[in-house]
Amino acid sequence: MQMLRNYLDKRGLPAALRSTLAEVPIAAQTACLVLDTMGELRDFYAAATVAHVGVDHNVLEPLTFGKPVTVVPGWDTTYPSYPVYRVLMDSEALMEAAQAGDLSNHWLRLMERPEQYRERMLATSDTLTALRGAVAKHLTQMGQFLQAVQNDRK
């Protein structure tokens, strides 16, 4: 965190670490809030306009709040969040940004063109709706498998 703090200070970006703030409103001049605490992302996703999710983390949380999500490439194919990431990338529900300029361009375009924001969120909602019911589908398949195993035991 100290390296990040030094980086922000060196660039003159007014920043605050969440862990150092009292339960008061954030100062108006704060341009960057570093969430260095646990369990608060959900609240900030709810208030965000757009969200950036780190590699191998949960992209569903900000999407369920209807927020466009950017990610960086390089996700670990063995990590539990990878299948969700892959499906959402393939459906263009996520925007990949390998460089800071890409990230900035995505965010500015979404904030400057609210109609694109709405279209992206409708498409994302359709994708998430199509993915619902995975537990029920798996239970149905498991039931068929278990029935076959029971029949083989008889």
Structure explained in plain terms:
Helix 4 links the parallel strand 4 and strand 5 (94-96). This protein has helices spanning 2-10, 41-47, 60-64, 82-90, 100-112, 114-131, 134-153; strands spanning 15-17, 32-34, 51-53, 69-71, 94-96. The strands form two sheets. The chain has a three-stranded parallel β-sheet with strand order 3-4-5, sandwiched between helices. Strands 1-2 form a two-stranded parallel ribbon. It is mainly alpha-helical. The mean pLDDT is 87. It is elongated, with a radius of gyration of 20 Å.
**Could you describe the largest sheet, including whether it forms a barrel?**
3 strands, parallel
Instruction: Look at the helices and sheets and give the structural class.
Output: mainly alpha
Specify the number of helices.
7
- Shape descriptor: elongated
| Overall strand count | 5
Mean of all residue-level pLDDT scores? 87
The main sheet orders its strands as 3-4-5
Assign a percent range to the helix content: 40-55%
Strand content: 5-15%
Our measurement of the CA-to-CA distance between the termini, rounded to an integer number of angstroms, reads 62 Å
- H/E series, N to C? HEEHEHEHEHHH
- The radius of gyration over CA amounts to 20 Å
- Poorly predicted sequence stretches spanning 5 or more consecutive residues: none
